[in-house]
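Quick one, tokens below:
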């Protein structure tokens, strides 16, 4: 079971360090792997504040080249140098706003893995795609560019459920996760308005191996409650 908190563009260095110091005081279950994903500038203080804990620190993105003329980008070796353990790739907000495609996503995943980072790669359909009956086709296309790797995890995040308060039912999540696993046998996290009060039911689905949590990961108590909901499910 893996619970990852995506802080998006929240928590600068001071706030990230304060959150991390608070989180390390909280009792988290031993059978749940916990990860936080701060913005780039907050990675190093978070790594330092969580040193000697089992909580992993992931970036939210990573370039597919190791270095070069890519203004505004950050590479996998740079992330490794500041002690980062892994990275998210292809969050729907990056597919939507930053021109991420299946091909660039696959290139980022390949390089990050080759450089020794763990990767959580995000897939999921939009509302229009679901309503047009294209969910399976979209998942096939997005997962089809990926290859199996022991350090790769997929996050199924239906775009219509992200930050909307609209959660996929446990049955919808289970079905999509089964589809993804039939394409690539990897752990699959569910993401989309996961909160302390719906986490247990979602995480209890047999094909749900954890959660990628946005809004509810910004508060120590609600994030810890979701981590506890993942224990022994
Ligand atoms: C996310 O950012 O990946 C996410 C799932 O956000 P939220 O939990 O706020 O819907």
């Amino acid at each position: 079971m893996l619970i990852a908190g995506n802080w998006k563009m929240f928590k600068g260095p001071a706030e990230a360090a304060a959150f991390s110091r608070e989180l390390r005081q909280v009792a988290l279950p031993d059978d749940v792997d916990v990860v936080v994903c701060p913005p780039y500038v907050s990675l190093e203080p978070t790594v330092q504040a969580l040193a000697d804990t089992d909580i992993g620190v992931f970036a939210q993105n990573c370039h597919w080249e190791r270095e070069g003329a890519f203004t505004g980008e950050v590479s996998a070796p740079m992330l490794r140098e500041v002690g980062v353990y892994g990275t998210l790739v292809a969050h729907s907000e990056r597919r939507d706003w930053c021109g991420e495609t299946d091909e660039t996503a696959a290139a980022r995943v390949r390089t990050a893995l080759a450089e020794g980072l763990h990767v959580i790669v995000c897939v999921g359909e939009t509302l229009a795609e679901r309503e047009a009956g294209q969910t399976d086709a979209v998942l096939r296309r997005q997962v089809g560019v990926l290859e199996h790797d022991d350090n790769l995890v997929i996050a199924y995040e239906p775009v219509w459920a992200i930050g909307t308060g609209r959660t996929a039912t446990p049955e919808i999540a289970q079905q999509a996760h089964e589809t993804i696993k039939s394409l690539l046998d990897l752990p699959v996290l569910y993401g989309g308005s996961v909160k302390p009060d719906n986490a247990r039911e979602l995480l209890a689905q047999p094909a749900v191996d954890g959660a990628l949590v946005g809004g509810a990961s910004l508060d120590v108590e609600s994030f810890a409650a979701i981590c506890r909901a993942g224990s022994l499910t």
